């Protein structure tokens, strides 16, 4: 009769034991499991089984990631994406290798009080714990991107892991092994996609001719209230109590910046890329260093500097840490100005106008999609003379320094003072969407029948179609018949932290 027993049932009633290491570990695992089953944990009977069920299929972690992504800072959004990516790697590893390699049965539930047991018992093998792996992977992924957020998520992850033993779903060894695999998955993802603190600083060269401002003394920060950034300014006031905060919006903003520059040792600005562009022009005219705090819809310049929140800026201002960055200049018969990020003609100005039109109604991300759809439906290219030849063009893009990726919205820069314009030209012709996408996925110094990408220090265009709009740093204006774009190398001093946390 004993010969007919199911090996799985035999293991459940008598786990392997013996003089070997495996036997001793199995016996210890069983003793710890039974000890936990006998212990009464106040309040846990109501909480841990529900928490364990909420983590089925990663639902709990997707909810946490969604909360971080929707309500958090850029750092929180990166942490959420990294946490989910780590969870996905851990889940694939557990389900394809872990549970198929070690076919360990689930614990016998006799010692576990009925109130603790799950309503639906798992049917897969026990080793390792998938729930513990997902919890550890998500928490570790978040912590690798943001230690404070990781500290907030860690107790929840620990509770989910403990719930698997508490409810009788796993032996303690299963949970420990799953947690180790989950943490390993997070580090594997970091090996493929470095975290922000592993990335090289884009701001250089360092300069030593800007003042240190303890407590923010001598900093006048102009906040664009129309950009929705008061929270950032209030946080900065707590970190730099000696700084002067001035609020302005709309047509009052340039005047406020000019007045601030007359009494400041350093000019600060809180707003989006268009606001920062205006402040940079004032700082250049007055010979002042610029302190930038992101507070708009798009904050490419601040993020490329490594500044995402008031803590980043306050460390740089108090330490006097700053870099010299390039400034792009354009002039035409209709208008002139500077740009810190990008300048463009053709499809992109229309995309900017459509994005501004829709962003207040449906939000920035959806507005990007609507604007891109509208831009790709453009029925005729602009006409201009470039390099002595008149030709149709869907888009002309000039980046202030080299972008690693272009796309319909600019990517990131590895160097803010390389002295070059990143010029991308999308030729006119049929299938504008295909041509634009080909340019979006292409890197610098690339060519195809659809587009060309080169690096220059100066660009001139003539005989531009009348009525052609131009866009610079998210702002839109008219372009004349002739256009010249140039670089001012290392023209602007900007505060930025030397270390990224």
3D architecture notes:
Helix 3 packs across helix 7 (147-166), helix 10 (252-261) packs parallel to helix 11 and helix 14 (347-362) runs antiparallel to helix 15. This protein has helices at 7-13, 21-38, 44-54, 59-71, 74-101, 130-145, 147-166, 172-192, 230-239, 252-261, 273-286, 300-305, 310-319, 347-362, 364-376, 432-441, and strands at 206-207, 219-224, 244-248, 266-271, 290-294, 322-332, 336-339, 342-346, 382-386, 389-400, 421-427, 451-456, 458-462, 469-472, 475-478, 483-495. The longest helix is centred in the first third of the chain and has 28 residues, at 74-101. Strand 9 and strand 10 (389-400) form a beta hairpin. 45% of the residues lie in helices and 20% in strands. The radius of gyration is 29 Å and the shape is elongated. The chain is an alpha+beta fold. Residues 1-17 and 406-410 have low confidence and may be disordered. Strands 1, 6, 7, 8, 9, 10, 11, 12, 13, 14, 15 and 16 form a 12-stranded antiparallel β-sheet that branches. It has a 4-stranded parallel β-sheet with strand order 3-2-4-5, sandwiched between helices.
Unreliable segments (pLDDT under 50, ≥5 consecutive)? 1-17, 406-410
Radius of gyration: 29 Å
In which range does the helix fraction lie? 40-55%
Number of strands: 16
Structural class: alpha+beta
Give the oligomeric state.
single chain
Q: What distance separates the N and C termini?
A: 65 Å
Strand content: 15-25%
Please state the average pLDDT score: 79
Could you say which overall geometry the principal axes of the C-alpha atoms support?
elongated
